[in-house]
């Protein structure tokens, strides 16, 4: 397939791996890029020197295009961007901040910039900022989420109608059938997180991967709305958060509960009781840990068979 997304990134398939904190190291990013998609390092869980180390290993592991996902709310942003520019990262996905802050600076260095949004207001800001493409992420997604709680099925056509930028759909996409649905709504690419978080190459702890595989319908919850909405797996830590919500806790009380390193504790260190386990609703459809190449093969074949099955169908 050739479209604006595959041409923009110079990739075989319009499939982008989510740059998930504590899951998206160089092994995962290189495996996705080598399989024909676009692999992303998740810089949100990396100190600058760690990011530099992962970039060195990633460049050695793939000759294909790759990128870095940068949540703009994290500290040491100047240092992170300095490394990205110095290391000649070809593609940067930004999120959780104003797209105008870094877009032109990065583009002047020859870097393509994509921004993640969850509503039309920020899609228009992206267009004004001149980003190269946008990711529209629906309510089903894991991790940080939009306050509007708009589902992917509703969000994608709204964004498609509002802007002319190349559009990547995210949230609840974990199969070839879902990719076909996103394309039917107007997307030209997809970003997939949860499915790759449960891959063999993911840097997530094996205990977290097993919890993803075990997840059933309704096992993820959108919570922490007084701070920034986050979708988590239901575990004892989530139950603590729920108790705080019922008691009407203040934002400061929630911050004290979270403390430091709660996501690392859960997803990277494997503390499935007291850790923060960020994953999307699509986890209920994931029933095994697989190598990236196998996942990509299933996504591509599932998309192709879905499109073929619809050939000639009329209402």
Provide the fold topology.
Blueprint: H1 4-9, E1 15-17, H2 26-34, E2 39-42, H3 48-61, E3 66-71, H4 77-86, E4 91-95, H5 103-107, E5 112-117, H6 120-129, E6 133-137, E7 143-144, H7 152-162, E8 167-170, H8 176-184, E9 189-192, H9 194-197, H10 206-214, E10 220-223, E11 230-233, H11 236-246, H12 251-258, H13 262-268, H14 292-310
Parallel strand pairs: 1-9, 2-3, 3-4, 4-5, 5-6, 6-8, 8-9
Antiparallel strand pairs: 7-11, 10-11
Helix pairs in contact: 2-3, 8-14
Structure description:
By secondary structure, this protein is of the alpha/beta class. It folds into 2 domains: 4-203 and 286-310, TIM Barrel (Alpha-Beta Barrel), CATH 3.20.20; 215-282, no CATH class. It has helices at residues 4-9, 26-34, 48-61, 77-86, 103-107, 120-129, 152-162, 176-184, 194-197, 206-214, 236-246, 251-258, 262-268, 292-310; strands at 15-17, 39-42, 66-71, 91-95, 112-117, 133-137, 143-144, 167-170, 189-192, 220-223, 230-233. The longest helix has 19 residues, at 292-310. The model has no long low-confidence stretch (mean pLDDT 96).
CATH architecture of the largest domain: Alpha-Beta Barrel
Q: Measured on Cα atoms, how large is the radius of gyration?
A: 18 Å
Element pattern in H and E: HEHEHEHEHEHEEHEHEHHEEHHHH
Task: Record the strand order, biggest sheet.
Answer: 1-9-8-6-5-4-3-2
What class would the helix/strand composition place it in? alpha/beta
Instruction: Give the helix level as a range of percent.
Output: 40-55%
- Indicate the CATH class of the largest domain: Alpha Beta
**CATH homologous superfamily heading of the largest domain:** Aldolase class I
- The proportion of residues in beta strands is 5-15%
Uncertain stretches: none
CATH topology of the largest domain: TIM Barrel
- Our count of domains comes out at 2
């Amino acid at each position: 397939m050739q479209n604006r997304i595959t041409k923009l990134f110079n990739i075989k398939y319009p499939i982008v791996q989510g740059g998930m904190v504590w899951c998206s190291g160089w092994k995962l990013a290189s495996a996705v890029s080598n399989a024909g998609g676009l692999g992303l390092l998740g810089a949100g869980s990396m100190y600058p020197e760690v990011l530099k180390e992962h970039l060195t290993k990633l460049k050695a592991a793939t000759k294909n295009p790759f990128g870095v996902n940068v949540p703009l709310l994290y500290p040491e942003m100047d240092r992170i961007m300095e490394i990205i520019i110095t290391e000649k990262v070809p593609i940067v996905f930004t999120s959780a901040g104003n797209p105008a802050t870094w877009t032109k600076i990065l583009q002047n260095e020859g870097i393509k910039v994509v921004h993640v949004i969850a509503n039309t207001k920020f899609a228009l800001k992206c267009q004004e900022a001149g980003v190269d493409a946008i990711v529209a992420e629906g309510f089903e997604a894991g991790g940080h989420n939009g306050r509007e709680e708009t589902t992917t099925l509703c969000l994608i056509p709204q964004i498609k109608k509002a802007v002319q930028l190349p559009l990547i759909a995210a949230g609840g996409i974990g199969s070839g059938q879902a990719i076909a649905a996103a394309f039917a709504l107007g997307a030209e690419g997809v970003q997939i997180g949860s499915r790759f978080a449960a891959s063999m190459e993911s840097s997530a702890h094996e205990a977290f991967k097993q919890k993803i595989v075990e997840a059933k319908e309704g096992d993820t919850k959108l919570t922490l709305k007084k701070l920034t909405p986050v979708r988590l797996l239901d575990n004892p830590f989530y139950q603590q958060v729920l108790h705080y919500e019922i008691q009407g806790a203040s934002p400061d009380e929630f911050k004290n509960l979270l403390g430091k390193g709660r996501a690392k504790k859960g997803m990277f260190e494997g503390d499935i009781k007291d850790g923060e386990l960020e994953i999307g609703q699509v986890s209920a459809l994931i029933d095994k840990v697989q190598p990236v190449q196998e996942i990509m093969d299933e996504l591509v074949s599932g998309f192709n068979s879905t499109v073929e099955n619809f050939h000639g169908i009329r209402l």
